[in-house]
Amino acid sequence: MAGWEAVAQAGQRDPGFDGWRNSLLDQAVNDLGINRLGLAVRSGSENSSDYYAGVPTTETVESRCQSYLTVNDNSDPRIIASGGFHFSEIDTTVVKVVLPMKQRLESRGEHLFVNLTYVSFLRQCSTIPPYVHREPSEYAEFMLAVFLHLRDTYGLVPDAVEVILEPDAWDTWTGTMIGRAIVATAARLSSAGFHPTFVAPSTADLGRGLQYIDDMYNVPGVQPLVGELAYHRYGVTSDDGLAGLAQRAAVHGARTSMLEHIGSGVDDLYTDLTIGQVSAWQQFALATPGEGDAGGRYYAIINGQAVLASRTRYLRQYFRYVRMGARRVAARSDSPELRPVGFQNADGQIAVVMHADRAGAIELRGLRPGRYGMSITTLTATGAELSPVVAGSDGVLRLTAPAVGVLTVYHQ
């Protein structure tokens, strides 16, 4: 497992942010279990003007378009020109969200995985001017500028580069272009002492993503650089598509990850884990202010308080107990009404998450002898702790699911 991810969006531009920040981040780290952040950097950060300084809190189509427009720092991609890049947006996110999350995880002896995500939704513009980053050398220069800024300003070095968010949303980015950008960027970053893994292709539609993957790997040198084959769940996400993705990952020695779908919940997570073989998973934003629950945030900010969203309550049964570095192990059930997923954490402790479609007795076999805690989320309860149970020398644990819900058994 390579992390439970959220976009580093927590309402940090809202004037009330300081009032809920500490409570939100404490909950996200210590209760829910978020340990990976998608840190967005817009293509328009390479520009002679700082678009972010003039963007209103509530973006318009015009202001969003401006935020993605690129103006080349100079004509030589080998030289980073001072003043050619503006990072005020990413600075705000790092200071208000990323560093506080990092500190909280480190106090637990854990690591915050930072996934630097390049975003360029130029399709929103009525006309698209020259786009600097279609050239691999210019894209590589841009990424180096971002890495140097983050390291030199904050001592922060991203763990991964998500090459382009939803490249299938417009015609410029192809699988071949992604592959060339990866090779050029890896070489440029390596020469400066940076060695991130690469995440791609991150298509909105998994069906289109499989072709992107095949084209990407046809570029010489790509294969050892890609750590995760990522997809989003918009469009068509079939079991056959997920199986095809897992097969490609096995061939190329990569992990898989589902890194965005507004509306996904624990049943999609189950499918992504067991068929897509994902090692990382993201719904969307960490938190946003306002009522409503469309499944695009882990927490809603209501009356200045961070409140678990309805889908998040069930995701917690995985996130809290399955930690970075865990390995999924085989688990099966003799009843279609009970769907188990097993994990061994990096410290050797076992966690088994069970989707129970009925209440009743369960006999769980194949465990290490010892004491196990149990937590369940149902329609009316979130993370309710049940009485601990003991697996004897035969490795059998007998328990009862008190209601329909998602039940986690974890070694104490």
Description of the structure:
This protein has 412 residues and is of the alpha/beta class. It folds into 2 domains: 3-320, Alpha-Beta Barrel (TIM Barrel); 329-411, Immunoglobulin-like (Sandwich). Helix content is 30%, strand content 28%. Strands 1-2-3-4-5-6-7-8 form an 8-stranded parallel β-barrel, surrounded by 5 helices. β5 (197-205), α6 (206-217) and β6 (226-234) form a beta-alpha-beta unit. α5 crosses α6. The longest helix has 20 residues, at 88-107. The protein is globular, with a radius of gyration of 22 Å.
- The structure class reads alpha/beta
Question: What is the fold named in CATH at topology level of the largest domain?
Answer: TIM Barrel
Q: How many structural domains are formed by the residues?
A: 2
Elements, N to C (H/E): EHEHHEHEHEHEHEHEEEHEEEEEEEE
| Strand order within the widest beta sheet | 1-2-3-4-5-6-7-8
User: What does the main sheet amount to?
Assistant: 8 strands, parallel, barrel
How much strand?
25-35%
Give me the CATH superfamily of the largest domain: Glycosidases
CATH architecture of the largest domain: Alpha-Beta Barrel
SS summary, helix count: 9
Quote the distance from N terminus to C terminus: 20 Å
Q: Percent helix among the residues?
A: 25-40%
Q: What is the name of the CATH class of the largest domain?
A: Alpha Beta
Mean pLDDT: 96
